Amino acid sequence: MENSEKKNYSIGVMDSGVGGLTVLKQMIDICKNENYIYFGDTKNLPYGEKTKQELVKIAKKVFDFYAQKKVKAVIMACNTTSATAYDELKNDYDFKIYPIIQVVSKCLSMDKNIKRIAIMATQATVDSKKYSAELKKNNPNIKVFEQACPMWVPIVEHKLVDFDEKEIIKTKLDKVLEFKPQKIILGCTHYPYLLDRLSKYANKEIFINPAKMFANYIKEDLKAMDLLSERKEGFVEYFASSEPEKFKENAKLFLQIEKQPVLVNI
Ligand code: DGL
Q1: pLDDT tens for residues 42-79?
Q2: Where are the domains of the chain?
Q3: How far, in Å, is the centroid of ligand 1 from the Cα of 2?
Q4: I need a surface site. Which of 55, 165, 259, 265 has the fewest CB within 10 A?
Q5: Which residues are catalytic?
Q6: Mind listing the pLDDT tens digit for each residue in 98-110?
C-alpha cells in the first residue's frame, strides 16, 4: 500500500482503562492532526494482577479489534502488556506497534549519567523484569530496582480517596528510596495521577512520567517512515469494553472527553 494512503490512517492507543490517556494527551499535544482510536479495556482491568498467558490472550483480542480498523500504528500505552504480551504478538499484525517499556527504556538508557534507576509498576510488570532487561540492553552497568505497587490502579480507576496512604503508598516508596535511585519511573500509565501524594514523601523532580518522552519518540519514528498525517485536523474515537459512562467520568482525571466511549465486546 502507498504511504500516501496509509499516512492518513488512525493511530490506536490501548490501555486497561483511563491511564493510557496520559499518553494520548501527549500525542494530541504534538500531533494534533492525527486521528486516534483509544481503547480502554475496562472489562479486564486490572491487568497487573493477571498472568502472562491471560495478558497475551487479552492483548491479542485488543489487536484483533484494531486489525478491523484502518490503523497505521498501535501505541501500547500499557506497561503491563508491553512487558508480557508484546514479544509474543509483535510479528502478527501489519501495523507498527509501539510498546511503552521498550521505547522508554531505549530513550532513558541513552543518558549515561543515569546509573541507578527505580521503577514503580504493576505486579505483572515487575515480575517480568522487562524494565531491567530493556534498560540494560544499552547500558549494561545501570543498576535497576523494581517495586510492585498493588492497589494503585484500583485507587485511580475507582477514584478511592479513603485508603491507608502510609501503608499503600509510603511504604512502597520508602523501599524504593532506600535503593537511592537518581530517578524513579512511574511504570504504569495510571500512576501520574498519584504524583501529588508521592511528592509529599520525595522530591517531585525524581519521578519520571514517561508519556512525553514516549510520544516524542513515536512522532519522530512516524516522521522517519513518512507516516505523519497530512490532514488539517484530527479527532479521537473512544471505545471501552465495559461501563462506558464510568470511563467518561474517570477520564476527567487525565483528559476531558466529550463523547461517551462506544461499548465494544472483545
Ligand atoms: N495502566 C497499565 C500499565 O501501564 C495497566 C494497569 C492495570 O490494569 O493493572 O501497566
Answers
A1: 999 999 999 999 999 999 999 999 999 989 999 999 99
A2: 3-99+212-263, 102-209
A3: 35
A4: 265
A5: 78, 188
A6: 999 999 999 999 9
